[in-house]
């Protein structure tokens, strides 16, 4: 996901299409939760890969982010929160 992270610096980004892009192909194959990660990383998005982002998508993304918060923060599994 390192190729996508710099996009978080674009606060006005509202539509993103990675479909057909080598980034999408690699990330989608490697990461099961591609859509959740992108929505979490870019909360201002309205559309991702030609599909509108719904309230349910945002709830799923937030739930996913809470579950994987240590990985998102760069911590290893099993590290303590303190």
TrEMBL record:
Protein name: Leucine-rich melanocyte differentiation-associated protein
Pfam family, one: LRR_9
InterPro entries reported for this sequence: LRR_dom_sf
Keywords: Cytoplasm, Leucine-rich repeat, Repeat
Major subcellular location class: cytoplasm
Taxon lineage: Eukaryota, Sar, Stramenopiles, Ochrophyta, Bolidophyceae
Organism: Tetraparma gracilis
Locations listed in the record: Cytoplasm
């Amino acid at each position: 996901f390192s190729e996508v992270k710099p996009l978080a610096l674009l606060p006005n980004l509202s539509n993103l299409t990675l479909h057909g892009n080598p980034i999408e192909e690699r990330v989608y194959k490697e990461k099961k939760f591609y859509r959740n990660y992108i929505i979490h990383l870019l909360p201002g998005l309205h559309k991702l890969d030609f599909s509108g982002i719904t309230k349910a998508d945002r709830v799923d993304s937030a739930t996913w982010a809470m579950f994987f918060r240590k990985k998102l923060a760069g911590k290893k599994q099993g590290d303590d929160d303190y």
